[in-house]
Amino acid sequence: GENVEQHPSTLSVQEGDSAVIKCTYSDSASNYFPWYKQELGKGPQLIIDIRSNVGEKKDQRIAVTLNKTAKHFSLHITETQPEDSAVYFCAVPDTGRRALTFGSGTRLQVQP
Amino acid sequence: EAGVTQFPSHSVIEKGQTVTLRCDPISGHDNLYWYRRVMGKEIKFLLHFVKESKQDESGMPNNRFLAERTGGTYSTLKVQPAELEDSGVYFCASSALGDGYTFGSGTRLTVV
What we know:
The structure holds two protein chains of two kinds. Chain A is mainly β.
């Protein structure tokens, strides 16, 4: 099955700084890479995703980059705000299945 | 559009008792998934329904777990008898075509 590693496990930044979270995966056939944000007491919410036919995708302050050769993808948050504080998960679909394998999560704390 | 609804939001039961979790997916979503997060670790896949059929139940930990989706609408996940290691947050998600999931807020299960 798919193996996903996510780093760092915790990240603390000052408001206005940028935050980067990285995930590596094992199955070179993977072609869909979503990122989820989980706030306290809520379920994971899809915030951005990327497919393997593009290398970067942006949505306002959030961007995801993909390096298929190296089998890693990263979440970039610019101009961080306190409301960005949450746990972020990357995920990769298992080949031939709809199941997602999640990374272990990154707790992001944005200090005002 | 109503989101994915799960209840109860919290459940505390004694070891050996039975608990049933319920998930109401977004109307019209044929795909329904169960995941769980144990002890703050990664979110792990349990099973996947397509309408009322179990498409993939490879993540179910053992035969104490039983999932049903009668009529292809809501789903239930029964744990009988519950053990201490079953404690965690159980998430349900649904999707239509494509890969994007919508998660519910989860049920926090505590077995004492």
